[in-house]
Amino acid sequence: MPELSVEKVDVRKLAHAYVALALAQDEAKRYARKHSAQAALLPLLTSLDITAELLEEILQNVLPEKDPPPSPSITCSNMLM
Question: How far apart are CA 32 and CA 13, in angstroms?
């Protein structure tokens, strides 16, 4: 089993937090629409939006923009040396 670096674990945790936040945000918005309580929940919805934007910005900074380069392949001729 390959070991994960601390950075990869942190990125994974950030991604999980972002997904959890998005789910909470959707549920809060759905509740506000259903119960006509949008005015009372506006501060909560605003803080969820701001937090989502900040987490998204952090994730964009830590996730690689491109796929990592492939590792060099080992051929049989390289192994016979």
Answer: 28
Q: Which helix (H) or strand (E) holds 7?
A: helix 6-35
CA atoms within 13 A on the CB side of 78: 4
Residue 64 per-residue DSSP state? -
pLDDT band at 57 (very low <50, low <70, confident <90, very high): confident
Closest by Cα among 24, 10, 5, 3 to 58:
10
Cβ-based neighbour number of residue 48 at 10 Å = 19
**pTM of full prediction above 0.85:** no
**Residue 81 binned pLDDT confidence (cut-offs 50, 70, 90):** very low
Q: What DSSP string describes 10-48?
A: HHHHHHHHHHHHHHHHHHHHHHHHHHT-HHHHHHHHHHH
The domain limits of the chain are 6-63
